[in-house]
Design a protein that fits this description.
mainly alpha, Chlorophyll a-b binding protein, 7 helices, thylakoid, Chloroa_b-bind, chromophore, photosystem i
């Protein structure tokens, strides 16, 4: 029933265009031109963003995502890339630090009961750690969404606010953000590149520990000694 109504509506609109002097082929060409213009706008917009770096002289897009996405969607993808890159950088450091300082007195596991590869330490943490951690993460995410994302009740649901700069939630306690636009652009590119590397690194850490069962440096030293 719904399909029949939709088909009837589409037919009526096409007929209306024909009666007004616009042929079906002209209408299709118009839609194609508008789509091409949108794709060109998206591609041009992406080229203005940080993150384009050597050895790629242009936007690295092997899946051709820019040709099928709007500017609003590309902004959302960049926000996701920045967020995941930051989490991956923290995770990469956490893997190494957690494995090397298992019984360090300043850490939560001061009794040395949490040991082994980082991927198994998650299950060893007892009650009293996850509850405040989940609360802190929830507060941080709620703030980020309220700061940069459009209201769920608006027509722009699931998009970023027009005046929001991707990744900039106003958190700079050390005052590291440069005032100079060129310096800021360079710093943003460095953050993106390090985040991308960290995403690859943490994926490699997880796969390696699942496969070998050794800690990161333990596996490295065994490999250097020729025991693997």
């Amino acid at each position: 029933m719904a399909l029949s109504m939709a088909a009837s509506t589409f037919t009526a609109r096409v007929a209306g265009l024909s009666r007004s002097g616009v042929s079906n082929s002209q209408a299709r060409r118009g839609m194609t031109v508008r789509a091409a213009a949108t794709q060109e706008d998206t591609a041009s917009y992406v080229k203005t963003l940080p993150g384009i770096t050597a050895p790629f002289g242009d936007v690295f897009d092997p899946l051709n995502i820019t040709s099928t996405s709007t500017i609003a969607e590309m902004r959302r993808y960049r926000e996701a890339e920045l967020t995941h890159g930051r989490v991956a950088m923290l995770a990469s450091v956490g893997f190494v630090v957690g494995e090397q300082l298992e019984d360090f007195p300043l850490f939560f596991n001061f009794d040395g009961q949490i040991t082994g590869p980082a991927i198994t330490q998650f299950q060893q943490v007892g009650q009293g750690f996850w509850e405040p951690l989940v609360l802190v993460i929830g507060i941080a995410e709620a703030y980020r969404v309220a700061y940069g994302w459009a209201s769920p009740n608006s027509a722009a649901f699931n998009t970023l606010k027009a005046d929001y700069v991707m990744g900039d939630v106003g958190f700079d306690p050390l005052g590291l953000k440069p005032d100079n636009k060129d310096e800021l652009f360079e710093l943003q590119t460095k953050e993106l590149n390090n985040g991308r590397l960290a995403m690859i690194a943490i994926a490699g850490f997880v796969v390696q520990e699942l496969n070998g069962g050794q800690e990161i440096f333990e596996h490295l030293f065994l490999r250097l000694e020729g025991k693997l």
